[in-house]
Design brief:
By secondary structure, this protein is α+β, with helices and mostly antiparallel strands. It has a single domain, classed as Glutaredoxin (3-Layer(aba) Sandwich). Helices cover about 35% and strands about 10% of the residues. It has 5 helices and 4 strands, in the order E-H-E-H-E-E-H-H-H. Strands 2-1-3-4 form a 4-stranded mixed β-sheet, with helices on both faces. It is globular, with a radius of gyration of 15 Å.
Length: about 150
């Protein structure tokens, strides 16, 4: 769902949150998704991104705000400069934000989302089958805690 930049600021159901840096909202119970965040934490040496679990009250409010299922998180959300990106577009932009060599992924943007997103959807629908599910959300280490929005 396309909305104007920072539209969540005008939605009373979305709590205020720091959005001065890009925010990645992810399924904290999904081992595959948590692995993605661990990868990002390891390679995001500039600490460019903040992270938020979809299961948190803020995460659920953002999923509802963008018209996504707030119980079955089949797309991560990248919020950058107030604009939300979903599915393959969000993932490509997230990786590209890490700089070289990861920014080479931008070449995939020449493919229309109509070709990229079905692959994303296939993985998203089967993510628990592929990697499993945690009983609780991913817990950041003490060193990582300041990169997460509670």
């Amino acid at each position: 769902m396309r909305r104007r930049a920072h539209s969540y600021r005008d939605d009373p159901s979305v709590p205020l949150f720091p959005d001065d840096r890009p925010v990645i909202v992810f399924d904290g119970e999904c081992i595959f998704c948590s692995g993605w965040v661990r990868f990002m934490l390891r390679h995001d040496r500039q600490a460019r991104y903040r992270y938020l679990t979809a299961q948190s009250p803020l995460g659920q409010a953002l999923y509802r705000h963008y018209g996504l299922d707030d119980e079955n998180y089949e797309s991560n959300i990248l919020i950058e400069k107030g604009v939300a990106r979903f599915k393959s577009d969000g993932s490509i932009r997230t990786l590209a934000g890490l700089g070289l060599p990861w920014s080479l992924i931008n070449v995939c943007r020449i493919l229309p989302a109509g070709l990229r997103d079905p692959i994303y959807d296939l993985v998203a629908r089967n993510r628990y089958r592929i990697a499993g599910r945690r009983q609780t959300c991913m817990v950041p280490t003490a060193e990582e805690r300041d990169r997460f929005i509670a």
